[in-house]
Amino acid sequence: MSAELSFRKKAPRKLFYKIGEVCDICAIEAHVLRYWETEFPSLSPGKNRAGQRIYRPKDVQLVQTIQALLHEEGYTIAGARKKLDSESTVEGLPLFTAPRAAQRKLSLGEIRRDLLEILELTKKNPES
Known about the structure:
By secondary structure, this protein is mainly alpha-helical. The chain has one domain (3-100): Multidrug-efflux Transporter Regulator, Chain: A, Domain 2 (Orthogonal Bundle), CATH 1.10.1660.10. It contains 6 helices and 5 strands, in the order H-E-H-H-E-E-H-H-E-E-H. The protein has helices at residues 3-10, 19-26, 30-39, 57-72, 77-87, 108-124; strands at 17-18, 46-47, 53-55, 89-90, 93-94. The strands form 2 sheets. A 3-stranded antiparallel beta sheet has the order 1-3-2. The longest helix is centred in the last third of the chain and has 17 residues, at 108-124. The radius of gyration is 18 Å and the shape is extended. Residues 1-9 and 98-102 have low confidence and may be disordered.
């Protein structure tokens, strides 16, 4: 049974899940889930105002995929990470999956500089 099918059967339909709910759905311990967050950059749940992790349905599906790769298919963590990275590419270009820790607030000056760079690039390549 694929991870997506098991997700549809076990998980109640919600917009967000707390870590305990994800652990119940996937039958794993919270410390395992927190460890996987450090090992798989694409698994980066948001946090609510209280600082609790909140997982979206796609995060739960990713956890189930990771679990299937590690426990059912026998991949190592490094192997599972490579497999997920190779599956998350489009025409050889990796999809953006930066972990939340890498995201930061930009100052207005940094945003302005980035926008000016984009403007200059579009002027050089008008067909893009």
